[in-house]
Design brief:
This is NAD(P)-dependent dehydrogenase, short-chain alcohol dehydrogenase family. InterPro entries: NAD(P)-bd_dom_sf, SDR_fam. The chain has a single domain, classed as NAD(P)-binding Rossmann-like Domain (Rossmann fold, 3-Layer(aba) Sandwich), CATH 3.40.50. The chain contains nine helices and seven strands, in the order βαβαβαβαβαβααβαα. The protein has a seven-stranded parallel beta sheet with strand order 3-2-1-4-5-6-7, with helices on both faces. α1 crosses α7. The C terminus is likely disordered.
């Protein structure tokens, strides 16, 4: 079944991690997915990682959708504007889904330091990458949706509340996009466009596997360093959450909310790649830590 056949999506920050998992799941559901980010073959970003949006787009196509890689620095307004002009021209003005997953804050976060000892330059750059980029992207993406009086904007974040996440700059970035989703929802409501925030649990991304020195096959070995990792989830889990949301004809009822993969897995009944159904919310409540994976031990999540 291809419930999203004929639908058009933009996944901003589709190079790796949650963005890649979301893009591939949308492709599996039949969507045309514009995969954007800064790393392309032959020209990697300063994140110094090997994943590229070209690979992601190929994975989308292999899964059954149409993957289109477009190099975009979402902090550069002209590049974002050009992206949506291209989408408008190529898709006859159609844009059904925009996922704001641009992050780039991991190398900028100095865990364990009070804000006045943290690099101010890095803290401000984190806001530029993880908040301003989302604002710019939505600014140019939303008009394609309001013109057709339909569409969905999803803000990917960490956590479902405003609690402190262990680092002022990190916390500000992640809670800001939750409010961004809520505020956009109000402005978009009269136009029939939906917006909300969505968080994964402890994400078992490519970078996190490398951090613990494990692979997809032996990832459980990382529990010797971080026991919470046993409750981690793959990027496919949040991908399946987004695909379920985008396929739901009643998704507008969720506008303005802050949602989670674990909560949605109960509502839409989907599993992770290995058939498990991680529930970070229940796990966090049981052991007495915050609902945000970062709130307990930011150095490892």
């Amino acid at each position: 079944m291809k419930p999203l056949a004929g639908k058009v999506a933009v996944v901003a920050g589709a190079t790796r991690g949650a963005g890649r998992g979301i893009a591939v799941s949308l492709g599996r559901a039949g969507a045309t997915v514009y995969c954007t980010g800064r790393s392309v073959r032959g020209s990697l970003s300063n994140m110094n990682r090997q994943e590229t949006i070209d690979e992601t787009a190929e994975m989308v196509t292999a899964a059954g959708g149409i993957g289109i890689a477009v190099r975009v620095d979402h902090t550069v307004e002209a590049e974002v504007q050009a992206l949506f002009e291209r989408v408008k021209a190529e898709q006859n003005g159609q844009l059904d889904l925009l996922v704001n997953d641009v992050w780039g804050g991991d190398p900028l976060t100095e865990w364990g330091k009070p804000f006045w000892e943290h690099s101010l330059e890095d803290g401000l750059l984190m806001q530029q990458r993880a908040v301003f980029s989302h604002m710019i992207t939505s600014y140019y993406g939303a008009p394609l949706m309001t013109a057709r009086k339909q569409g969905l904007i999803i803000e990917i974040t960490d956590g479902v509340d405003n609690q402190y996440r262990g680092n002022l700059y990190y916390s500000l970035a992640k809670t800001s996009v939750i409010h961004l989703a809520k505020a956009m929802a109000e402005d978009l409501r009269p136009f029939g466009v939906t917006a909300f925030a969505l968080t994964p649990g402890f994400l078992r991304s490519e970078a996190m596997l490398e951090h613990f020195g494990v692979t997809k096959e032996n990832w459980r070995d990382a529990a010797a360093q971080e026991p919470h990792f046993l409750m981690s989830e793959t990027p496919a889990y949040i991908g399946r959450a987004v695909a379920a949301l985008a396929s739901d004809p009643e998704v507008h009822l969720k506008t303005g909310q802050a949602l989670s993969t674990w909560g949605l897995s109960e509502e839409y009944v989907f599993d992770d790649e290995d058939g498990s159904r991680p529930h970070w919310g229940n796990y966090a409540a049981t052991i007495g830590i915050g609902a945000s994976p970062e709130s307990d031990n930011g150095e490892t999540t």
